[in-house]
Structure to design on (219 residues):
């Protein structure tokens, strides 16, 4: 299972990459604009920096809704670095643009996937990745992870090479659910990565071991 981090925050990416298990980064216009506001940097410079910090695919999203606009934005974004992956929204125009962008050997992450049919269309268009948003489905009382499970089954039925990125992860249980069904990738916010390390029994265990060791340390 690959771990991506879902953020554009350079400090978070640095800290997560130092943990040694980061396989990629996903950004979106919300996350990137937050980092631009925080640092005052140019959005493309933020993306360039991320690409230098992490070797795997770095998703950068287009904001145009027209095919030509998406393709032009993709061309510009892909000059930033070799590992840029173009994030394209799931629309009819997005599907058309995905075909053109992937024909130029550029990776595409088709985003805002909320149904099996949308994932199927993205795979047929040649998307490298699809991003079902599980947290946003949970928000409207649909079981987000069930969608991922169905998409995995369909992709396996036809041996589609498209990989599934479980997105809109909100808590550690989402990561467990994604791992249990064998999802290819989870893109995880920094605060959830931090929570994944935590267990109260680990803290209590360390505390007790150290306290016991202290008893003999000065003997
Ligand atoms: O990866 C998609 C993610 O950034 C959206 O997350 O929490 O805004 O639904 P959220």
């Amino acid at each position: 299972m690959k771990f991506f981090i879902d953020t554009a925050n350079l400090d978070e990416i640095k800290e997560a990459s130092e943990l040694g298990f980061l396989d990629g980064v996903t950004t979106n216009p919300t996350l990137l604009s937050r980092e631009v506001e925080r640092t005052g940097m140019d959005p493309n410079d933020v993306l360039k920096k991320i690409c230098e910090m992490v070797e795997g695919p770095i998703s950068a999203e287009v904001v145009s809704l027209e095919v030509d606009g998406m393709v032009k934005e993709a061309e510009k974004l892909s000059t930033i670095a070799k590992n840029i992956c173009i994030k394209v929204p799931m629309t009819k125009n997005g599907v058309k643009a995905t075909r053109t962008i992937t024909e130029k050997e550029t990776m595409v992450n088709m985003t805002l996937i909320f149904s099996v049919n949308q994932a199927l269309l993205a795979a047929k268009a040649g998307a490298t990745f699809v991003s079902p948003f599980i947290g946003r489905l949970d928000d409207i009382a649909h079981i987000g992870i069930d969608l991922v499970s169905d998409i995995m089954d369909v992709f396996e039925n036809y041996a589609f090479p498209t990989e599934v990125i479980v997105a809109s992860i909100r808590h550690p249980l989402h990561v467990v659910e994604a791992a249990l069904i064998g999802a290819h990738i989870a893109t995880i916010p920094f605060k959830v990565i931090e929570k994944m390390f935590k267990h109260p029994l680990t803290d209590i265990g360390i505390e007790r071991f150290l306290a016991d060791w202290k008893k003999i340390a000065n003997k």
User: Anything to note?
Assistant: The chain has one domain: 2-217. Strands lie at 2-6, 22-26, 58-61, 84-89, 107-113, 129-132, 163-166, 185-188.
